[in-house]
C-alpha cells in the first residue's frame, strides 16, 4: 500500500510547483479547480505589488525587503494605536468614538497582514488548495454560476480598493500642496472635520495616509480571499447535493453510494482545512463587528447632521462594517445550510430506500450516517458555527445594544438641556 506523504512546508512548496500556482502551469481537466487557482493567482499579483508576498523561491533581497516593510508597518501601526489610545483616554470626549474606531480598523488591518504573512510562510493556503483539488467533483451544473460569482467578488475587491487608494492619495497630495498653495490649504481644511484634525495633525496625516494606503487594501484583499474560498466550498457542497438528487438516474447504486461516501469524506477534510486556516481570523473579525457598528453609530450621532462634510466622513466606517459582516457571515451560512440539506435530500430519494438489495441498503445507511454532521461548517475558533441562526443572534444583540445606546444618548441630551436652562437662570 502506498504510504501517505507527511505534510510539511517543503511539500506545500512542491505542491505549489506541481499545481501551477505562482508562475507555473499544469493542465487540469476540472474547471472549478482551474478557476479557483486563477483567482488565487490574481490575489498573489496584488501582494507582489504591495511588496508583501513571501514566497520561498524569491531571492534573498526580495525576502529581506518585504520582511523589512512588514516589520516597519507593524511598528508604525503599534505607535499609531498607542497615540490613538492616549487621545481616547486623555483627549476631548467628542473624539472617543472615532479614536476607538481607528484603533479597531488599525487592528483589523494589521492582523490581516500578519495572517497573510503566516499563511504564505507556512503554506496554509496551499494545503487548502491541495485538499480542494482532491475534493473537486467536476460537476458542470454550477459552472457558470460559480464563475460569475468569483468574477463579482473580484470586481467588488477592485472597486473598493480603487476607491480607498484614490481617497488616500488625493488627501495626501491635497495636504502636501496645501503648504505651497492657499487654495489647496482651504480645500484640505474642508476635507477634514474638527474631530479628524485631532488625530491627523501635521506629519501624522502623511504617516497615516501612507500606512493606511497599504493596510486597508490588504485588509480588503484578505476579506475577499476569505469570501472566494468559502464560495468555492459552497459550490462544491451544492454540487454534491446535486449528485445526491441524481442518484435516481443511476443503475449501479452500490458503487455510486460508495463513491459518494468517499467524495463526502474529501469534502469534510477540505472544510476542516479551511477552518484550520481562517478560524481565528473569522472569530476576531466577526467578534469585533458589534463594537465597530455601535461606535460608528455614535460617531454619526455626534456629527452635526446639517454639516454634510462631517456626516460623509463618518459614513464610510458604518458602510464598511456592514459589508464586512456580510462578507464574513453570509457565504459560510449558506454553506452550513447546504451541509444540513444533504441528509434530507438523500433521505427523500425514494429509489434508494425502496431497493431490495441488502448491500445497497447497507451502503445507504452508511452514507446517511456520514451525512449527519451537525457541527460541520465554518467555525469561529470552535466557539460557534456560522449559520443563519448565529447571524440572527448577532443582529438581536446588536439591536439590543443599539436601543440601550439610544436611550442613554437621549438622557444625556435631556441632562444637557436642563443644565443649560439652569445656567441661563
Automatic annotation (TrEMBL):
Domain of life: Eukaryota
Keywords: Membrane, Transmembrane, Transmembrane helix
Annotated transmembrane regions: 68-91, 97-119, 157-185, 205-229, 278-301, 313-336, 380-405
The protein's name in its UniProt record: Gustatory receptor
Record flagged with keyword Transmembrane helix: yes
